[in-house]
Structures are given as structure tokens and as C-alpha cells.
Amino acid sequence: MFIDSHCHLNYKGLVEQEREVLARARANGVQGMLNISTRESEWDAVIGLAEREPAVWASVGIHPHEADQHGDMTSAKLVEKARHPDVIGIGETGLDYYYDYSDREQQQACFRQHIVAARESGLPIIVHTRDAEEDTARIMREEMEQGAYSGVIHCFTASADFARIALDLGLYISLSGIVTFKNAKDLQEIAQTIPDDRLLIETDSPFLAPVPHRGRTCEPAFVSDTARFLAELKNIEIESLAAQTTNNFFRLFSKAA
Question: What is this enzyme's EC (predicted)?
């Protein structure tokens, strides 16, 4: 049994074949999927799918790319929407300085609102970071000093130092199909150091299809390929990795259990 801890089922490439995508995932042993929102306009659709489908859960959040378009986003608004029984996480949120689609200060302010919402709701935060390790770490540390919260660094591609910071803060680390890429040697080395009890797996579909599906639209069924690669990398049985990452998911996203 696998859990895809991060996918975008409402995105183009998947939403047009929703039933088929879900059927293929379940046929491939993927028994649960966390469907992630990235802007407020998606919240109702993402929650709606969770209401219709068993073991498909929802998050509410604003991606850093969308921060400029959500200048009025508050922790209170996030907490209110997160009261829905199928919403199990806050995000995705964080910082992305690679594209700078939104002002950096606005990204940081929005990120902090999400952390406050995670703290107040008791739900884990789902963190995106790209080319922004220093500020991401600083904000996470500063906010942790204001009160504990849980969370996961999704689609991890950062440095070993950042991985240690995240783990020291009590966060989980989720690996996507990127870890299977031939040019991902540094990430593969870091993956071997992530404690088994703090590891999640994801697709981030419809993006980042793992080997052997490169070039195709990614979908939750492919999370099993990432799991098999990681099991071999960490020299453990695939059944053990599947069970461990599934247990980790339900420990972190306890509302789904």
C-alpha cells in the first residue's frame, strides 16, 4: 500500500480523466492521495473531490507563486476552511526565489500566515522551497520559537544542511520522482540519510514523472516507481518502505487516520 502525499488532481492533464487516474492509482496499490491546493480559487474543487472519493484528502493553501494575488490571505481564513473534515493539511506554501513570480516579502508574509494557521488548526504545514533555503529555514525557526507546529518539506531538492535543519525542527521530508533522475546524485545521497520514520513519498503530479515514465504526464500511480527506487537505494524491502511511509503519512496527517 502506497500513499501519494502530494498531487494536483485538479490540474490539466489529470482533471480531464479523473476517474481513470484514480482507478489506475488504486490498481497500482496507491490507496490514498493528498490533493494539494495552490490558490484560493481551487479550494472548493479540491475539497469537492475529497468529499466524493474515499481516501482522497484535501489541503488549503497558497503557493508562493500566487502570493501577490492573495495579499489579503490570513491565518483565520485558512483555519476556517481547514475545519472541513476532509482537509488534513495547510499548504502548499513557502518560498520560491527561482522564478520570483511574487514579491519576496509578500511570499514571506504569506508563508508566516500559513504557519500560524498550522499552529492554530493543529494541521501540518506543507512547505515548498526553491532557491530560498536561508529564508525558509529562518522563518521556520523563528515561527517554531513562537509555538510548535508540524509539517513536511515536499518535493525535497534542497541541500543536506537544509535537510538537517528540517529534521531538527521535527519536520518530515517527502521525495518525488526527481530522486530517480540520473542527474540527481546529490539528492540520492541525501535520501539515504533521511531517517525511515521521517520519510514520505509523492508524485507532485502532473509534474516530475519518475523513471521509467520520463516525458509522460505524471500521475499518482507512479508513486510506486519512486518507492521501488528508494527501497533499492536504501537497501530495504519495498514492502517495508511502503509500510513505513504509509505509517509516517498517517502519523503526520493524523486527521486522515
Answer: 3.1.-.-
pLDDT, residue 249, reads 98
Residue 242 is predicted with a pLDDT of 98
pLDDT of residue 61: 98
Distances (CA, A) of 151 to 72, 121, 126, 205, 211: 23, 12, 6, 20, 27
Residues of the chain with pLDDT under 50: none
CATH number for 2-256 (one of 3.20.20.140, 3.90.79.10, 2.60.40.10, 1.10.530.10): it is 3.20.20.140
